[in-house]
Amino acid sequence: MLHTIEPGGLDARLLRSAAEGGSRFALAESARARIEASVRAVRELVSRHDAVYGINTGFGKLAQTRIADDQLAQLQKNLVLSHSAGVGKPLEAPVVRLMLLLKAASLAHGVSGVRGEVIDALLALLNADVLPVVPEKGSVGASGDLAPLAHLSGVLIGIGEVFVGGRRLPAVQGLTKAGLKPLELGPKEGLALLNGTQCSTALALHAAQRLQRVFDAAVAVGAMTVDAAKGSDTPFDDRIHAVRGQPGQREVAGTYRDWLHDSPLRQSHLHCEKVQDPYCLRCQPQVMGACLDQMRHAFNVLLTEANGVSDNPLVFADQMEALSGGNFHAEPVAFAADNMALAIAEIGALSERRTAMLMDPVLSGLPAFLIEHGGLNSGFMIAQVTSAALASENKSLAHPASVDSLPTSANQEDHVSMATYAARRLHQMLDNTAGIVAIEWLSAAQALEFHRPLQSSPAIEKLHATLREKVPFMHEDRLVAPDIEAATRLVESGVSLA
């Protein structure tokens, strides 16, 4: 499927298509006039011999150094080479695909002085799934994601490496695969390619995509645990949530009602003596609703960033001016990522508490550690310990990255956002939380079967069957790690009521 990229026109659907791969993207023809005008403006500014940052000057602390006209092309190439200083393992394919799309979309606004053929080349790499090898570490999230974007952009001039079908190849071979030849960058083009928040934004957007799936699974599994523990559905009554008015809370309560609707198991204990359930069951709408509100706010910030321009300087062709500013500072992305980290940690923390509750026969009314012949068998005892370890690790990772800053470039760039780390660490947290929810799913499914022949709701029984296609009931102790791995894959793939 071919998607046309209009400046400011990215949405969740396009971002998802880009991350998944397999779609094609093209620059809207309507954007080309403004792009060409910005290129002409750069040429005019160069001909005037006025000092314009990054066009005919050095970079960062070296901005006071003027560069001769016959060295401007070399200046842009040197910028890419010198800034390709990343370390660590390569970023994953969905993130690099998003980086290519976001950089092309930013340049398409026509205020960066970059030729249309450069933008087309970025999209050609994306369309051919020729993905630059981008080390994950090396950006502080201000002056843009310089090192990651240098590695991304270096491929356009034949420098660096790419992944093609899982194989790591020299950049020149990747260009051939995409039907391209190495480019010579014009004035301002290297700087425009490197300046921007596209790495941190791509990391955070991909985390948001993953988080939605983990969130949906956590709500579904949490509903299963309510029934497995013979909990009450009264706390999900809309009247409770309407009088508070928090939108996420009210919406999520409705989702819990949908999952639990028409459960014979619930009907079997409507008039029991238990008055109130533990918070991990009763307060799910309040906690998960707050997480949902944070997730949506963060995504809206990231979508705005994806549709904006974070280059510097910006070229306004109508006024024939290049204005230096600070749109490359990724503070909005850092804050959004930090808020997502809180949500990820809380989703996992609440899930772990539900698992722990199921282990305790006093609270759950079920066999200790959900296994027959306890003592001889340990059941889910250590699976819950693993869940606790993952939840505890997330607490450390949830510490806000945005409050940290270290001056760079000899104190010229003296306050930075740390947005790239803020976004990158989300994926480690998501790995942890997906594992926590997977362990709860295994536990809740096991617990349900101790209530047979009573059935849960049709929706929860379908969720139970989905897990049982991969993981059987635990009659006696067995190797648990493969079960957790299988359940984690199911969590990451997403669940729905449909």
From TrEMBL:
InterPro entries: Aromatic_Lyase, Fumarase/histidase_N, HutH, L-Aspartase-like, Phe/His_NH3-lyase_AS. One of its GO terms (molecular function) is histidine ammonia-lyase activity. It is found in: Cytoplasm. Its EC number is 4.3.1.3. Its main location: cytoplasm. The modification 2,3-didehydroalanine (Ser) is found at S143. Contains an active site 4-methylidene-imidazol-5-one (MIO), which is formed autocatalytically by cyclization and dehydration of residues Ala-Ser-Gly. One of its GO terms (cellular component) is cytoplasm. Belongs to the PAL/histidase family. This is Histidine ammonia-lyase. It comes from Piscinibacter terrae.
